Give the backbone structure.
Amino acid sequence: MNLLDKAKTYNMQLGLTFIALLILVLFMVTAPGTFLKPRIYISFLSTTPFIGIAGLGLTLVLVSGEIDLSFTAVMAFAGFVFAATMGFTGSIILGILAGLAAGSVVGMLNGLLVTLIGIPSIVVTLGMQFLIRGATNIIAAGRATTLTEIAGTPLYNLLVGEINGIIPAQAIWFLVLAIAIWLLLFRHRFGDHILFSGDNPETAKMMGVSVTKTKILVFVVFGLLGAFAGILDSFRLRTWWPTMGEGYLMTTMAAVFVGGTSMFGGEGTIYGTFLGAFLIGSLEAGIVAAGLSGFWTRFIYGILIIIAVTVHTLLRRRS
Amino acid sequence: MKNIHKHFGGVIALRGVDFTVGDNEVIGLIGDNGAGKSTLQKVLSGLYPPTKGEIYIRGKKIHPRNYSVKKAHKLGIETVFQEKALGEKQALWRNVFLGRQPVGKLGFLDVDKAKSETDRIMKEFLGFTGAGISPESMVSTLSGGERQGVAIGRAMYFEADLIILDEPTNALSVKEIGKVLDFIREIKNRGKSCVYISHTIAHIYEVSDRFVILDKGRVVDRRDKGELSEEELIDELTHHAAQSESGVNE
């Protein structure tokens, strides 16, 4: 590998790892009572995967040259379809399948509107976010559904149980999905098509790749991932809330951009999103534990995002 | 291609063009801006279906509706667009195999094979030796001439019999242009054919065997290289350009 390319690829990842470690050390120094004990880390492993799984899907969409803002509503919608189907049929598996199907249908709708009608994805998915959230609330009449009966079932343990009584299963799911999405993006033919669709759609077309099909599929994959995150969150809370996912839009985007994925398509980093999710996911707890008021959280998010994105952009330009 | 017409709504880009490419020859397709060169090129490469006309490849008639970029690739016709040939943010090996990736089970890429074959293409077809370029180099780190080379090498690797080049020397330095012209000679050396589209006569004259001159969507002249000098070719082109200008004014 050319030295310059090597430097470019690894600089970003090393830089991000360094920032993450630095923040960790900062937390350990300012709040040793919290950050030198394992409890806080287990709490991160329990809550971060929801941002993270959505972040993986968002990374794919950004690499393909599009954006999707509807995933928080997809989480709620899929969670509702899961809860309703389960209530109706008494089958957890049917509930999960119905929830995943609901997510992929929304993804496909997004993809069709973006590619075939030609509406910019930021507009389509913004509209879709309101539409889906609104529709879900209308059908659910704004009421939450309790799912206490799922606690302790084998699927509950598999999805959100604690491995060895310590590690939350959703963290393992996040890790497995991150590896799977990395393989899909960088080692699979479909990923090759995603990269080129976002980089230079004309090239992709000239080489016989269907950019339309690729993008629709990417939106479907994100629909599936968003749905999975929603179902997982319903499992964890043992309740479906109509507001599910509402706080996740900005934090997920922050995780992906801090991770180093570009807004301009054609390139992205799964490792960056993985680390970015934990960075963003741990910041709030860390700031509060360090004795600062919650008001500081947003301020520090802002600093982190602007510094990280500036560094990524400069690194990209230099090469 | 016989009697090719192409209309875009009310605009007529090609009005009855006959165009033939023989075995192992380099054809210079010349014409002023708006003469129909790039439309003809897009019809040739399968991107635009002609409004009217017939396409024959190796004597076999191809229905225009069945003709596409993929079909053209299958029949050994590859087009190299300067701006659109490569994805800048991707590694060379991804660019070389885009659309034709070596895959194993379940569609996973055979990355080792793609990289080693890319290395071979660069060394054998293009004479890139060391010099800081490897299959993992990003296209954005390559010079304009090198990028053309990669796209031409890719076409040669996939056994294209006819390679169409659209303005391959635009915006290149003199040294880089020399490289691209060498790549075109290499196409001929390997027994393949090439359609070289440009309005830079000096470069076209150097490497072409035959010239086809387009003007206002028609072929206005065909010449062999032996028949005229570079100056005469330029004179002829200027003459047609001047005529079409006065034609516009009428």
